[in-house]
């Protein structure tokens, strides 16, 4: 049986955090056995905001090490730096000629970014078309993403369908299905239970990074925002207590148990007691990953090999796809 392909990617900005681990990498790790898997470090997306060149390059290597430390097996799955495969940008141009300006201006991520940023460049606007190119280039069937990316994925589907229709080439581009997993908690900022934990949040205290040491982890959890009540007795209370919900969610996700079980374990207890347990659990789960990251980062040759290998395999798929695409559209 031919395996279906999954594809996902993360922007190399900031530091990978437990939000990325629990919301993406842990899930990728579990899926890679059942699917052809492609995991991208999307550096071309990252340059829609200002980057320090040397930092960007280092972060691409470090993200690769972090993917592997989280369990992505580079012999089984392809780990690819987006800019190593020029066909992403080539396909993007073609797809952008099939995408209406009106569609892009309705993207909520664009709308919120362009409200907050000073540098509103054309790349920020066409960002979802590049994402569509990432996905359609490799004929990905399934794309595991957070709910914030669902609209971009819908756009990828629309672009694929429009291409096939316009050029009378049924199934040449495969409309991908989103995979928004519900049993993985959406991890929120440690400083604000209503805001997503983000690797690019300026506040270090808002997140646990995958390379944080034991002291940092204990300190950040100690300082995490809570309310003044003891831990909730039941799930109904969570709706009005976002910080409690988030911390209980982190505990449950890391320990692979339902939030209900976690509530039963800690109901009525004080936050200080729960936070001790939570910090120990985070250390237990994250320390092996952070020491693996350190070890991998010392072996630059290995990381280079992984990336060269990924780029070579990607190029095979991508160049065949672009060759056929050019035939279809008359280039
Ligand atoms: N846009 C995604 C994000 O900001 C990252 C991304 C780029 C992506 N290309 C992708 C995700 C392809 C899934 C598939 O999170």
How would you explain this protein's 3D organization?
With 331 residues, this protein is mainly α. 54% of the residues lie in helices and 7% in strands. It is built from 13 helices and five strands. Strands 1-2-3 form a three-stranded parallel β-sheet. A two-stranded parallel ribbon has the order 4-5. β4, α8 (150-166) and β5 form a beta-alpha-beta unit. The mean pLDDT is 95. Bound molecules: tryptophan. Tryptophan is lined by residues 7-9, 11, 40, 42, 45, 131, 134-135, 143, 145, 149, 152. Residues 7-9, 11, 40, 42, 45, 131, 134-135, 143, 145, 149, 152 line the site of tryptophan (TRP).
List keywords for this structure.
331 residues; mainly alpha; 13 helices; 5 strands; 54% helix; globular
| Total beta-strand segments | 5
Strand content: 5-15%
Major beta sheet summary? 3 strands, parallel
* Spatial separation of the terminal alpha carbons: 35 Å
Percent range for helical residues? 40-55%
How many separate helices?
13
Cofactors and ligands: tryptophan
- Listing every helix as H and every strand as E from the N terminus to the C terminus, the arrangement reads EHEHHEHHHHEHEHHHHH
Radius of gyration: 21 Å
Main-sheet strand order equals 1-2-3
Q: Low-confidence parts lasting 5 or more residues at pLDDT below 50?
A: none
The rough form would be described as: globular
Kindly name the structural category.
mainly alpha
The averaged pLDDT comes out at: 95
